[in-house]
Specification:
single chain; 302 residues; mainly alpha; DNA polymerase, domain 1; 3-stranded antiparallel sheet; two-stranded antiparallel sheet; 50% helix; globular
Length: 302
């Protein structure tokens, strides 16, 4: 049943044109309180109804303050230990080892990793520039020293692929339409090539020219799934788990939480503080009661 139909039935089959903010607020509160929907479902219902009123009835809605909002559940992210992360990385092919090493060593999101271009690697300042990350924000994160030689080798491989493409009369990379028009030379410039290019060239979705895009995200997912099964690790592991693990490892090793916030690109410190819950009190030496009981028995026997 569509959201619009549910909204009309909830209001005793009244026509939406006869209703307004109060009926919408009551319906949204009903979804949260009686139906116990998630915040995502309630937000979807709100968007659908607002769209309906705006484009069909040409009315702008203002949500009432007393509307009950569904709360998103607070989830503690799954993280890998350092040994687990390294074990998974070592089970992958060479190129993917580097990709997941960057995820774990620099705290990048999967999409940010795939969109890395050669120009984004700053060897002199040992940093990686993240262009238009989540929320369309730029940021700079760390470039692990142990990955420098591997990244240089990867750039050499990209240069060889690019040289071959040029020889075949191609050599273009995938650029946003506006950027391609503003800087046409950038399409074939080596520094604009993706750090992890796709194996085959494809047609640009809007501009029509043939170019070499970055690797597809499904390639990472498939390789990671195989590695997890082979490793015997029973945790639910995704590419984003390596970003979570990056943050927790920094905090466990004494990094300042503000520094971690900046490296991850979080707007709100509260978002970064979730990793302090992952670490738990055991990091400060707090013992479980059962462990304390066993220690007392051991001391008594002595």
């Amino acid at each position: 049943m569509s959201i619009q139909k549910r909204f009309i039935l909830f209001n005793q089959k009244r026509h939406p044109a006869e209703m307004g903010e109060e009926e919408v607020s009551n319906f949204l509160s009903y979804l949260a309180v009686d139906r116990r929907v998630t915040s995502a479902t309630q937000n979807l219902a709100l968007c659908v109804i607002v769209f309906m009123y705006k484009h069909i009835f040409e009315r702008e809605l203002t949500l009432l303050d007393d509307t009950v909002r569904a709360r998103a559940p607070k989830r503690v992210p799954v993280v890998l230990s350092n040994d687990e992360a390294v074990k998974l990385i070592n089970l992958m092919p060479e190129t993917y080892q580097l990709m997941f090493s960057i995820l774990y060593g620099s705290g990048l999101r999967k999409a940010e990793l795939l969109r890395l271009r050669i120009k984004d690697i700053d060897f002199d300042n040992q940093s990686i520039f993240v262009f238009r990350g989540k929320g369309k924000k730029d940021r700079v994160t760390m470039l692990p020293q142990t990955l420098v030689s591997l990244i240089r080798e990867q750039i050499s491989k990209v240069a060889e692929i690019h040289k071959k493409d040029i020889a075949e009369g191609e050599g273009k990379t995938s650029l946003p339409s506006g950027l391609a028009r503003k800087y046409p030379y950038a399409i074939t410039d080596i520094k604009w090539q993706y750090l992890f290019p796709s194996r085959n060239r494809c047609q640009h979705p809007t501009d029509g020219y043939y170019c070499r895009h970055h690797l597809h995200w499904t390639a990472l997912t498939k390789l990671l799934r195989k590695a997890v099964i082979k490793s015997g690790i029973t945790k639910h592991v995704t590419a984003h788990t390596f970003r979570h693990s990056f943050a927790t490892q920094l905090l466990l090793n004494g990094a300042d939480i503000r520094t971690v916030q900046e490296l991850l690109g979080h707007n709100d410190l509260k978002t970064t503080q979730i990793y302090t819950h992952v670490i738990g009190q055991h990091s400060s030496g707090t013992l479980s009661p059962i462990d304390r009981n066993q220690m007392n028995k051991f001391e008594h026997n002595l």
